[in-house]
Amino acid sequence: MEQQPVFNLWSEPWITVERPSGRLDTLSIEDVLIQAHDIHTLYDPSPLVVAGLHRLLVAILQRAYTPQETSDLIAIWHNGRFHTDKIAAFGSQYANRFDLFSHDAPFLQTADLALIPTKKDNVKPMTYLLQELPTVSTIAHYHHVYDGQQMFCSNCAAKGLVTMPVFTLSGGAGNRPSINGEPPLYVLPGGNSLFYSLVASLTIPDFQPTQRSEDLAWWDRPIPVIVKKKSEVRRVGYLHSLTFPARRIRLHPTKMTGQCTRCGQQTIWGIKTMVYEMGEGRPKKTSWWRDPFVAYHKPKKDKPPMPIKPSKSRAIWQEFTGLFLPDREDELGFKAFRPAIIEQLNDIWYEDKNLLPSSHFPFRIIGLRHERGQMKIFEWEETGFAIAPRLLADEEMADFIQKGLDFAASIDGKIRHVFNDHFGGGGKSSRYD
Questions:
Q1: Which among 2, 175, 332, 386 is least buried, having the fewest CB atoms inside 10 angstroms?
Q2: 285-317 as b/e, with b when 16 or more CB fall inside 10 Å?
């Protein structure tokens, strides 16, 4: 390779944001954080990328601020913007850990593989990096491309990498999903600006997963950074989970002469192939992992709570109470778990009711629906809800809303039954569903 490839995500523009005026800009990580109060929201054609970017920015801010008490979060909230000295301090210590093509510490990749593929490497097309793109045996319905003809710009390659800790599926011999198993629905707080969305997403230790261990966020891993193939990780720290390397990856950069097949733009370096193998995974029989952005169903018998996932038979609005509202314990002492981030917001609002608007607070729900156990991708799902903060603590209203949803579901069933009787015809045909 004639020239050493460099693309540092800390300082290079690659994240697309929407301004309050609706204008789209492309910024570096550093600029996104410094300007968060002047940014409306993150933008990408794929909401999976938005979720991955959101969690990456949250991980950086968690390390930069390390909030320990609710009062710490309230202080950040009242400031109205992120301190430039906090962001600069993080950058001075860790900026070198965000180089996409570094020899010894490539961002979210393993350093024991070469930038130029060898005969021994398990080379894959770049389409493996984005779950919504079909590739080889992975089927994405209603989306057809030739994976061998795909060339990603550095921006899109980085966006694909940040979706790995969030949406990596099982599939292929020995391949396991990422930290949360088969991808659940993710609940992301919103706000009048990206600043408020990210502040509402920061957590103190009381609302983080209970497993305590050395928290190896990606930028804290020893150099050279090595992701071992098919390694089991029994104890995971919170920042480790947000940057979890579910796959062992090494991008193969090349000089880019044409346009990116994903976004149509061009960078100096493009990527057509990579090594893509099983990386870290959690053992099948291990303690319950409660992600702060995920809601969980009530446990059954001796099994741990299961996350709420996208479902063909249920629209996201039907999961409203499970996603947002408090749940009473049943006669056995079991209860469902809404996202811990919402539990924390409720506590913050109780301490300072001026922080959240009295009428509503926005949330963004993002998920990926696929056929479980098989590499068939059907659709991503994204929707938004505006929740009155007082509902976050009102158990009686939660019961009332759930009864309304149950009534709507029963009416839906009756309508289906009537239509099936009159228009469905005989047999088990679902032609008129």
A1: 2
A2: eeeebbbbbbbbeebeeeeebebbbbeeeeebe
